[in-house]
Amino acid sequence: MTDLPDELGIDEIIRSLASGAPTTWLRSTRTEAALPDLGDVMDSAAARFDRFAPWFAETFPETATVPAELASAFPDTSGGLIESALVPAPAAQHRLDGLFGSELGGQLWLKRDDSLPVSGSIKARGGFHEVLEFAEAVAEAVAAEHGLDALDPAAYSIREFREIAANHRIVVGSTGNLGLSIGILSARLGFAASVHMSADAREWKKTMLRDHGVDVIEHAGDFVEAVEAGRASAEAAENTHFVDDEDSVSLFAGYSVAALRLERQFAAAGVSIDEQNPLTVYLPCGIGGGPGGVTFGLKRVFGAAVRCVFVEPSQAPAMFLGVRTGQHSGISVQDIGLSGATAADGLAVARPSRFIGPTIGPLISGFAAVPDEVIRAGVGVLHETEGIDVEPSATAGLTIPWRKGETAAQSSTGVHLVWLTGGAMVPGDERAAYVDEGLGLVERISSPASAIFVD
Ligand SMILES: *Cc1c(COP(=O)(O)O)cnc(C)c1O
């Protein structure tokens, strides 16, 4: 273990994190932090998704009708909805009760962003939104000259727009899923797209993007290097938009819309979320943008009745470290001797977003660091109990509801919603390998020897 600088070494939570141990930090909810002034960008993003619904329905036939499991929550929507199901998971809950030898108070539910349409991960929310916002800006700029109406979804299917789009490029750095979402949507709108990928990105993601006509640039370094290369290539270039995962309000706005949808889904399921039946949400966290946007939206919708817990691999707890130390993007997990490496590729991030910690940090109710073995075992639990196959990153939050604090304030009643963040795009053979490996690890899930800190 690296020697910690004195100002960090005196913090028992940082010491626990630095040791690589499963660590949980639950913050008391005595005072509710004020919401940052981002409600308008959230509402604009919701309206933008609504405007583009007819375009999605036409462009991606699989979204043309609203699937049965979403119909009751969205009765007035005819198609083009980018949304995932909300489902109870009693079998997984029962299995985990058994493995941990302790019963969870309340009910376990799953949010199925692993099967969001078109790109199969939570990145469809933020990534699609930023591409759509850019498309509207491009259309707006040429509206007068070309007789386009940027607010009319039909404008994005006509030849004039596609010719203009072909002269514009969208650039992003990604470990995989953000690149997939941005690349697929950019290509469908007619934009040129470049995805800068880190060394750990999966081969099939690169192949899939190239099949969509996206330029894939491979880098030998990590995520930060890929992002830097993308940023540098976009800086000097004309008609080029760089999607900055470290600092984007547009990505954030797209993620936040999930909360408006979730409110309708709980209502349609007959579940009221209030102080008597609080909602605790467990969000896998990489750079922090996805969980940050969702958290802001949920706090705006449910107020004190919701608590959001960010979950990260124990070797890459970037947001946890940034918020706990108050140094945010000024500190990386390597600074406390952790590797930053994890089997959960979407979560292999060593340094958090510049934007999320300072803005959303006060709204986050807790942080948890989970060993890779438990993340991989989660794939097995979901396969065995619910017949759901996801990528490892998606299961990070699955066992966290069983980590209970000692005070009544951290009571475990109400709804425990584990956000499943990715999986549908994983090719069959890789998926089978994740499942096999996960099934072999399930029995290793047992009473969490987790250090739990409550303050
Ligand atoms: C990107 C991603 C996350 C986390 O989102 P961040 O914005 O990086 O925090 C979680 N799960 C999966 C599968 C992802 O691809």
Automatic annotation (TrEMBL):
Gene Ontology BP terms: D-serine catabolic process; isoleucine biosynthetic process
Enzyme nomenclature, EC number: 4.3.1.18
Location of N6-(pyridoxal phosphate)lysine modifications: K123
Enzyme class: lyase
Domain Tryptophan synthase beta chain-like PALP residues, every copy: 100-401
Swiss-Prot/TrEMBL keywords: Lyase, Pyridoxal phosphate
Domain of life: Bacteria
Reactions it catalyzes: D-serine = pyruvate + NH4(+)
Pfam families for this protein: PALP
HAMAP family (alphabetical): D_Ser_dehydrat
Gene it is expressed from: dsdA
Membrane found in the keyword field: no
Homology family: Belongs to the serine/threonine dehydratase family. DsdA subfamily.
Transmembrane intervals: none
Protein name per UniProt: Probable D-serine dehydratase
GO molecular function terms listed in the Swiss-Prot or TrEMBL record: D-serine ammonia-lyase activity; hydro-lyase activity; pyridoxal phosphate binding
Cofactor(s) required for function per UniProt: pyridoxal 5'-phosphate
